[in-house]
Write a structure and sequence with these properties.
single chain, 154 residues, alpha/beta, Ribose 5-phosphate Isomerase B, Chain: A, 5 strands, 45% helix
Amino acid sequence: MMIAIGSDHAGFRLKDAIATWLHKQGHQVIDEGPLDEQRVDYPDFAKRVAAVVARGDAQRGVLVCGSGIGMAISANKVPGIRAVVVHNAWEAEMSRRHNNANVACFGQRSMGEDVVLHALEAWLKTEFEGGRHEERVAKIGHIDGSVKIEAPGE
């Protein structure tokens, strides 16, 4: 799978650990930066990763900051992105199964690397369930304009 990754300075070390792990798992990685721990603004990197995923150049994205929260908020501004903050494997699985999340966000300051990698593994292996969740996910896309929903009778 092609996966875009990015972080800010507060998530740089975990981003690099994730990239190494992804390569070992056989995934291709598009690293959108940063290249070091110099202070940067998380919205810039969230936008870069989200744009790569929204264009279809990567199937999924992974973002890391101190908490994961700022990255998720920023990434979700890009039409077609469904970014979630993930704290454990169960949340990772459910975000894929029910919400078809395409960007996972993690907090370097709030989670250990082992927990992150376990959750990321679950997130990457879980497929979207579809069914009753398809219409709901389409409604999310309608909110950001990435999906057109026709009203009955249109």
